[in-house]
Structure formats: C-alpha cells, structure tokens
Amino acid sequence: xxxxxxxxxxxxxxxxxxxxxxxxxxxxxxxxxxxxxxxxxxxxxxxxxxxxxxxxxxxxxxxxxxxxxxxxxxxxxxxxxxxxxxxxxxxxxxxxxxxxxxxxxxxxxxxxxxxxxxxxxxxxxxxxxxxxxxxxxxxxxxxxxxxxxxxxxxxxxxxxxxxxxxxxxxxxxxxxxxxxxxxxxxxxxxxxxxxxxxxxxxxxxxxxxxxxxxx
Length: 215
Known about the structure:
The chain is an alpha/beta fold. It contains ten helices and six strands; from the N terminus they run βαβαβαβαβαβααααα. The protein has two domains: 7-130, Rossmann fold; 136-213, Rossmann fold, CATH 3.40.50. Strands 2-1-3-4-5-6 form a six-stranded parallel β-sheet, sandwiched between helices.
C-alpha cells in the first residue's frame, strides 16, 4: 500500500452508537477512509462486496449472522480483506473460531484509541495483532502446539517462542530484542517454522499458533 493511499475501513457493529463513535474518531485520521457501515453479519458481507475495504472492524455477536460467519464469507470472497475483531468477549469459544475464520486481529472494546489505530495500520500492512489478554491465552498454549503433529512438523522450543512473538505481531527486529538473539537468527527460525508447518507467510504462522495451541 502506497504512502499516499488511505486505508479503506468498513465498520460492523449492531450498536449504532458504537458505529458512530468509530466513524467520528477514525474519520479524523488522514490515512483512513471509512467506506461503509453494517449492523449485522449479513449486511457486512454485502457491504464488503460493494465497498472493497482493506480492513473490516468486526463485532462478533450480532443478529441475522454473527461476526465469525461473516468473517469466513468475506475472506472466502476476498482473501486480501483484513478483518479485525472488535468485541467485548475474550472467551475461548469466541476467540478461536474467529481466528480460524481468518481474522487477522482480535481486540476488546476497551482498547485504547491509539492501539486501535496502530492495529488497523499494522493489519493493513499484512501483520496480525491481538489484545494482550488474547495473546496470553495463545502463549499459554504454545508449548502444546506440537501435540498430535507428525514428528517432522514439531517445532523446537526456540521456534515455538518465535512463533509466539509472531502471534503478537512483532517485527523481526523486535523478536530479536525480546529473545536476545540476532535478527539473522530470527529470520532463520521463521524460515524453519514456515517450512515445517508448510505455511506461506508470518500471518498464517500466527493463525497456526492459535489453532494448534488450543486444539
């Protein structure tokens, strides 16, 4: 995405006051363009097809069609669309279905405005971002990520740590600083992770961390 190109955002929530607040706040930012709103999952699928948003802010609990099914359908129709779940729920039965459906981010509605904006920008760049509470749930399950996998797919302890960092949306430089290793070493670990798990990029690796840490 070019520097001068604005991020097109679709707001999906069944509460009008939430949609209005997000539209007012995000609409003031020079690099973000609100291209539509939807009050249900069904409306979201239709609006996404018409507006072609880069990023969708998706509530989960809505009438007609929930956010998980809407995310699944939108991603099936347009794999380039990035979905950020914005919800009040942090339960496992909400988090993991949403991530499996293709959500690139998961935030709680008490998120600070600056963090929301940072997440929108990061997800538009192809990164994945999760709320701290959600990240802790993921990391607590990383150690079990190898259960049930063929031996050739099992990760080393260090690779599992790097995978956890990827799930948090850290850059290679940030991972190197956190784990006290060279950035070149981080790249090697990531290459090994993607090869072992037959994944094409870091975002899919982060999704894998969620799926297999809690199955």
